[in-house]
Specification:
By secondary structure, this protein is of the alpha/beta class. The chain is built from ten helices and eleven strands. Bound molecules: guanine (GUN). Guanine binds next to strand 4 and helix 6.
Length: 285
């Protein structure tokens, strides 16, 4: 058996095409959707992510700009900028790229963003709404995973789902979304005992550990759906997920590749959240 590939790149492209008309309609009303991305420091991976986010917006007619600060900037400067952006009617989404340098209290920064402009869905108010099953903004990576599962026709009701990783950005909101969709959810992490035993039970595995080829075929139930959120750089410079894709392909039922899987969907859902923020402001939702 060879697993069916869930093609995130193709789905992302299809969705982005459908966004163009919404952006045009908003622009015609004087509400061109606008996203501001704040980057602190020079982390090379963050620089790539931020560039892709800004370019993703521009490619479908949205407004987007990045604001870059040196790594040693005082948090006060960033907080003042966020306050200014909160009050700017042309700005519908504000995103502060994580991680931040050590002098920052990340939570303080995330809470400073107006919940109406929090297109990452990281503000406590938005996290709470998601947990209550009434999401306002869904964090982009798990949102992208849910869209991929939906497009692949996977019904989650009553399914055993195992999320590997408990980050605020992926693992925790992913678990909340899967619970809301009717799955029975187990969250594994670095302290989990007998991790492979949990994963072997799973109809759906979401790997978000940040370790190359962490998920191996012996851990999988035959026919499982395997979603790989990881992006790891190997010593030879190539990209690789948290799943040993080549080996798992013969055991999984459906699987996402890296690159070309979850990655393109993350930015797509950021665009979706920003457009939705602008539509709400224009009274269209
Ligand atoms: N760093 C890694 N992923 C993300 C994300 O989805 N949003 C932000 N703001 N920072 C990140």
């Amino acid at each position: 058996m060879t697993a069916q590939i869930i093609d995130g790149k193709a789905l992302a492209e299809t969705l982005r095409q459908t966004f163009k008309a919404r952006v045009e309609a908003l622009t015609a009303r004087g509400q061109r959707p606008g996203l501001v991305v704040i980057l602190v420091g020079e982390d090379p991976a963050s620089q790539v992510y931020v560039r892709n986010k800004v370019n993703g917006c521009l490619a479908i007619g949205m407004h987007s700009e990045k604001i870059v600060y040196p790594a040693d900037i005082a948090p006060r400067v960033v907080l003042d900028k966020i306050a200014e952006l909160n009050a700017d009617p042309q700005v519908h989404g504000i995103l502060v790229q994580l991680p931040l340098p050590a002098q920052f209290d990340e939570q303080e920064i995330l809470e400073a963003i107006s919940p109406e402009k929090d297109v990452d869905g990281f503000h406590a108010e938005n996290v709470g709404a998601l947990l209550q099953g009434q999401p306002h903004f869904i964090p982009c990576t798990p949102y992208g995973v849910m869209k991929m599962l939906e497009a692949a026709g996977i019904d989650l009701t009553g399914k055993e789902a195992v999320v590997i990783g408990r980050s605020n950005i992926v693992g925790k909101p992913m678990a909340a979304l899967l619970i809301n969709a009717g799955a029975t959810v187990t969250v594994c992490h670095s302290k989990t005992r007998n991790l492979a035993e949990h994963v072997r039970r799973a109809d759906l595995v979401v790997a978000a550990v940040g370790r190359a080829k962490f998920v191996t075929p012996d851990m999988l139930k035959p026919g499982a759906v395997v979603i790989d959120v990881g992006i790891n750089r190997l010593p030879d410079g190539s990209l690789c997920g948290d799943v040993d894709f080549a080996a798992c392909q013969s055991v999984a039922g459906q699987i996402t590749p890296v690159p070309g899987g979850v990655g393109p969907m993350t930015i797509t859902m950021l665009l979706a959240n920003t457009i939705e923020a602008a539509e709400r402001k224009a009274g269209l939702r």
